[in-house]
Amino acid sequence: MLTGKQKRFLRSEAHHLKPIFQVGKDGVNDNMITQIGEALEKRELLKVSILQNCVEDKNTVAEQLVDGTDSELVQIIGNNIVLYKESKENKQLELP
């Protein structure tokens, strides 16, 4: 689990990031979870945008992504979800 201080640090790091995935009306599927998992391994920190036509609640989507990718939820801000997962081979971020 992330501490408050670590989440604050990750939020500041994620501030300038653009969402690289979008969840639309089909919701979250296995293929998306696989791709987000691979992207997390490369980047450690990423944003996922939830489109307005998504039928599922953003908290539900966030929970599905966290469970599927075994990552940490940093924050949900507006229609964006910020996820963090420590990379095994590509470590870039040093948490406080």
UniProtKB/TrEMBL annotation:
It holds the Pfam family CRS1_YhbY. Keywords: RNA-binding. This is RNA-binding protein. Signal peptide: none annotated. Residues 1-96 form the CRM domain. It comes from the Bacteria. It comes from Oceanobacillus caeni. InterPro entries: RNA-binding_CRM, RNA-binding_domain, RNA-binding_YhbY, YhbY-like_sf. Transmembrane segments: none annotated.
